[in-house]
């Protein structure tokens, strides 16, 4: 994806629906030029507002469809804007389940303008089954007690923290928002089931001995729909270090009638799974998502989790990740 | 797939490469008419030998490509025989990774003759993510310490044994050979990763309270390449009962530099995984693959495993599955 970006928000009405655009804007602000919203959109990233034509004149190269919805489809009334972006000379990128390239009006405009239309959720290459072969370099994987608990955010914060300490580190994206932020990666939930761990192996290849790949986790080993993806990602990542992400006030898995697993049990299961391909795997910290907690309750919750686990706990947004990095690098 | 079948063996030289044809012939002999072998083929199923033309005259309806190879591709020198089968009026079915329908000469003959060309490994429908919703009826899943250890064979033997006792039971296929044997199912390793457990839910829908679905397992929770598929299949199957399949003389996973897991640990991990979606899940027996053991060593090995696990152990081929069924039905 060529920067600078125009972030398309459609007409979404909830901030969570714009999480892809928000993630790109938060973590790659230097590549973002402006946002473009349709009438009815009530989400605002607080950046410049431009139409595709204005953005193209200002130097934008790619319009990113920065929204998600249930089912991952492109509403029909968004298509004209996407065609307009191509006609203005912008490339177009999205991470929906529905492929932009399968929409006739967009495919026609793509062929007519010669612009690139990138469906980032669909792997653009095949994979092999995992080999289990030990690779050089070091790897950290974020795992969690549920989906949408902070695994991507934590991995990005750890990448930034490592680089700030002069450690060579790369964020490795495994979901569409992560791919848009880093510009590469593989949507691990979209590969063929046989190749989950093989795709994860491909994602973090052999590297220098002191290099850290910080791999974005997906799902949870305790999730009735997605645990298979999580387990294959763990085995293929063969992590030296795990950071467990957790939201203390969440009692049930998002959208499911299943309880959030006990944190201690979650740690043990993830370590057991990771030790299959890396006997040295260990948990180096707990990333605590306190975004929905009363400020007064946060310190006690953090202390409780530290006492329960014996590991450094922090909310990357409130506290940074320095204490986790201290354990990781020692 | 319409019977009777002509089983195409190509020019394979090892029995293991003909396992799909052998499985169909063993478990659905009443639907098999003959085999067809190319020059150089040294495998013989011990049944009638016919060309596609002879088979068509004798009433065959489908030629099944009954061989597997590394990579799952169709060798070019097999294509003429496949085209000939279509021209003789036979349908064509295969379970390779490479699609018959993607081979130009076969697609052309398909269109010209109007015959059906079935790529059984590719799901012919989409799936949803797993819901975790508890379904009616009862389910048994075979799991194992490795791939190719007897999970399909055990499930078929259990289906046959249940039916012999007057219990309503259905074998549910999760791999291409199983699909060819039962005529339906889903190649669970070929669905999109996000939908593994959803496909497994689809495979064994709500059923009568006393009905047993006997689900063919895949891979192993301890396999560095395929454990994700195994875990998603466990969660989506939500089995009431598990039978663990094991080969005592195997020390390493087939083709991998990983040890076979300890049987006790394998039992515990599978039960822990299954209890996420079915808290009643339990192991009801061990299926022991003794095909490569000295006859004199078998009894002692079985006794050892029974003492170690407290569960009935039997090789379905040598001993049948009655003792396992006694535990299952009580």
TrEMBL record, chains A, B:
- Where's the D-glutamate N-acetyltransferase-like N-terminal domain? 38-123
For the D-glutamate N-acetyltransferase-like C-terminal domain, which residue ranges apply? 131-325
Which Pfam families does this UniProt record tie to the protein?
DUF1611, DUF1611_N
Entry-linked InterPro entries: DgcN-like, DgcN-like_C, DgcN-like_N, P-loop_NTPase
The protein depicted here goes by the name Putative NAD-dependent epimerase/dehydratase family protein
